[in-house]
Alpha/beta hydrolase (Serratia marcescens), 75 residues
Amino acid sequence: WKPEYDRWVDMLAGLNNGPGHRLVAWNSALIYDMIFTQPVYYEFKDLQTPTTLMIGTADTTAIGSDIAPPAVKAR
């Protein structure tokens, strides 16, 4: 853990514990549903707003990593 990560933890804690936590939970549910049920890669070209896609190559907490085949997990 690095101290510079604290700002992101604080931000997430604020979102989840703040007055808009129900809206945050709803939006999170919509995002997870999209990730699990809809291919979206081909739609990236249609985005109209500036968007940052963050992909961690060393992330062991990736969505679906617990159900990935052994060959994929080994990567």
About this structure: Residues 24 and 30 are 10 Å apart (CA to CA).
